[in-house]
Specification:
The chain is mainly alpha-helical and 81 residues long. 69% of the residues lie in helices and 0% in strands. It starts with 6 loop residues before the first helix and ends with a helix.
Length: 81
């Protein structure tokens, strides 16, 4: 059985996902023609997912969804959607 999230873990998750990841990239979306510029964004998202994989699936799945949603929002902005 994997770990349950403490209050501090939830705080850290939200801080990592929104304050560190999304706010870092939200106004710095790479140009559509520069595919290589997405590598750091995707790598950072993967590292966050890996960081929180130690938690029980009931906690981990929403974490993964949040990160994937933020990447999708950034990609939509890149495409002008």
């Amino acid at each position: 059985m994997r770990e349950k999230m403490s209050n501090d873990d939830v705080r850290d998750l939200m801080n990592d996902c929104y304050n560190r990841f999304f706010t870092k990239w939200r106004n710095n979306v790479p140009e559509t023609t520069n595919v290589d510029a997405w590598v750091p964004i995707v790598d950072e998202g993967i590292k966050l997912i890996e960081k929180y994989q130690r938690f029980d699936d009931a906690y981990f799945q929403p974490c993964q969804t949040i990160i994937e949603t933020f990447v999708n929002i950034l990609d939509d902005r890149r495409r002008g959607a």
